Backbone:
């Protein structure tokens, strides 16, 4: 490779991590490892200026990513709780279903909705945007293939689910006879 394509600020031993591209308008781009690794030097984290270069920075990034993943799990549950509290236009629908020994049972379903131009729906929309952005951040962090950051994402999501999901309401159909 021609060493004139690399900025003078990079020592020669780092040339293997750089790639020159005609489509990058003369700027150099870092190559990212495509296998899992447990390094802590020159690990990019979401933004070009946010590079992990020491064990302390990796520990800080681990904690931040862990809490970001916990926040994501909490946000999902919080949105469900807000949705239940803001539901309007409740309707009950009854329908016949076959029961044991040829009998007919009446099953009742609750149907709820929201108004499109309401404060709760606008809040849900904004929280959905935040949830999508955070989920993509977590995906991109995982795609660094750094083992420490991958563990932080998985552990944060697991602990977040543990702490927040017990509030999640689950519909149990008492007429269901399959075990």
Residues:
């Amino acid at each position: 490779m021609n060493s004139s394509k690399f900025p003078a600020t990079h020592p020669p031993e780092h040339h293997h991590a750089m790639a020159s591209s005609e489509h990058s308008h003369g700027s150099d781009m870092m190559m990212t490892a495509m296998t899992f690794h447990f390094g802590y030097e020159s690990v990019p984290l979401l933004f070009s200026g946010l590079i992990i270069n020491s064990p302390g920075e990796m520990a800080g990034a681990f904690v931040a990513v862990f809490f970001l993943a916990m926040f994501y799990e909490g946000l999902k549950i919080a949105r469900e709780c807000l949705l239940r509290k803001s539901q309007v236009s409740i309707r009950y629908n009854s329908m016949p279903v076959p029961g044991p020994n040829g009998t007919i049972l009446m099953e009742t379903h609750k149907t709820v909705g929201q108004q499109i131009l309401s404060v709760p729906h606008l809040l849900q929309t904004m929280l959905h945007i935040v949830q999508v952005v955070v989920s993509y951040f977590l995906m991109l962090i995982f795609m660094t293939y750094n083992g420490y950051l991958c563990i932080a994402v998985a552990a944060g999501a697991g602990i977040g689910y543990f702490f927040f999901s017990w509030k999640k309401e689950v519909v149990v159909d008492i007429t269901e006879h399959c075990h």
